[in-house]
Amino acid sequence: MQEKGSISIHTENIFPIIKKFLYSDHEIFLRELVSNAVDATQKLKSLGQLGEFKGELGELKVKVSVDKEARTITISDHGLGMTAEEIKKYINQIAFSGATEFVEKYKEKDAAAKDQIIGQFGLGFYSAFMVAREVEIFSKSYKEETEGAHWVCDGSTEFSLETTEKSDRGTDIVLHVAEDSDEFLEPARLKGILNKYCKFLPIEIEFEGEVINQTAPIWTKQPSELTDEDYVKFYQELYPFSEPPLFWIHLNVDYPFNLTGILYFPKVKDELQFQRNKIQLYSRQVFITDEVKDVVPEFLMLLHGVIDSPDIPLNVSRSFLQADAAVRKINTYITKKVADKLAELYRKDRAGYEQKWSDIGLFVKYGMLSDEKFYDKAKDFALVQNVGGKFFTLPEYQEFVQANQKDKSEQTVVLYTTDAEAQHGFVQAAQDRGYDVLKLDGPLDSHFIGQLEQKLEKTTFKRVDADTIGKLIEKEESTESVLSDDDKTKLQELYKAAISNEQMHVQVEALSPQDAPVIITLPEFMRRMKDMQRAGGGG
Ligand code: ADP
Ligand code: MG
Fold first, then answer.
1. Of 272, 332, 409, 517, whose CB has the highest number of CB atoms within 10 Å?
2. What pTM does this model have?
3. Centre of ligand 1 from the C-alpha of residue 150, in Å
4. Which residues contact 338 (CB under 8 A, 6 or more apart)?
5. The complex's ipTM?
């Protein structure tokens, strides 16, 4: 026996679940209702362009107001409105999205509509019941000779719908705020929510007599229309009181996914100053979240700015991203754009790039360490600096050392210092003998060195106080020491006894009176082990 049928849902059971669990944050009811008002307005504009609406558009502002006494919040628009039939169709049917329907219907005639309409799940409206005990809709459609419609629902599955007098086109949504949601009757609270989610919506939003949003934020414009001042100004709007950014990347792609945005390189000196979660994610100019973990590669989380993509798959609650193939593509794209930008800066203005290196070096190294693809690009524009302050790219430095190295063996030995002051004697000794010494004293440098040793062919890194330098020095026999052999032996024994550490190498040399007569070194691997233990790695 076989039977087929359809599963039924008891709305009275589902309703409380939607109210309680669909959205993690109650405050987003305002984002959803304002988005609907914006959608309604965009649709009307679309219909106007298509010739389906021939009337006057008139004032199109969306107004949000609150009446503390009456305990109501009202969201009004002059969009396309709804007839009573449409209310039944779009509002009474949960999870039927009029937004999706509109996009489907007009996608051939008006391709832009797809990118402008925010709604997609057909659930947003019901978020009103998270904060309201009763919701009213007053609406009048743009269609000629339709009457106004009035819908009331108290959050149960019962509603009432009747005709009403409404003179102007559009929709008023009136929320009768529930006892437990008093906070939303505070104008300051509402303003905060509007600022967070609606600040860049494409239709003007008015609250308390003021327009709260910028309808055309700079990321929606073409880079050619914008000046450096525009970018800096926008940065300071996003992050008031912060230092101007070093530079920025304007993202603009429409294939294979849609994404716009601006990523800024903040001015930071050390790891502690790095602030994560400074990138804001938008979808069609509606703020979604600043948790961009899946969209932006880990090392790029240090950047600031805005990413806007209608193609980032959001779940109904929109706060959660669904990691999937599209997100991975976006991730790869952003990494590539950032690498390209750095390569361009390096190519076009090497001096300027070198000046910025102290600010971007840490970031580039972090990227190289955490992302293979980024390493492959960055290996050509990552810089190292010697104690004299001169910058080299990695290939340049390898070549330089090879040309300079007296010991013409297979291996290129790069000497470096992690503390030019404390290791001054060693640095001096190496320099006196014609060796160059790199300054690798940053917080990520020990990892960076490890990576370079793996990646660069035939190249080893030795800290100036490692025993290698002693060996290099020993190879040069030409110069006479100022100490006699006897002095040397005595000194060496004296020091060895004092240190009593077999692993340390004591070398008594002093080629000139300025030289430190005794150089005590530890094999490179020993020191690295110690460093690691100190760093808490434990090996
Ligand atoms: P979505 O926006 O995802 O489609 P919603 O639950 O937010 O779903 O809204 C359902 C539908 O109700 C919308 O698609 C739209 O057709 C209609 N609607 C909601 N608010 C308005 C409004 N202010 N003006 C006109 N239609 C609206
Ligand atoms: Mg909606």
1. 517
2. 0.82
3. 15
4. 249, 263, 300, 303, 367, 374
5. 0.99
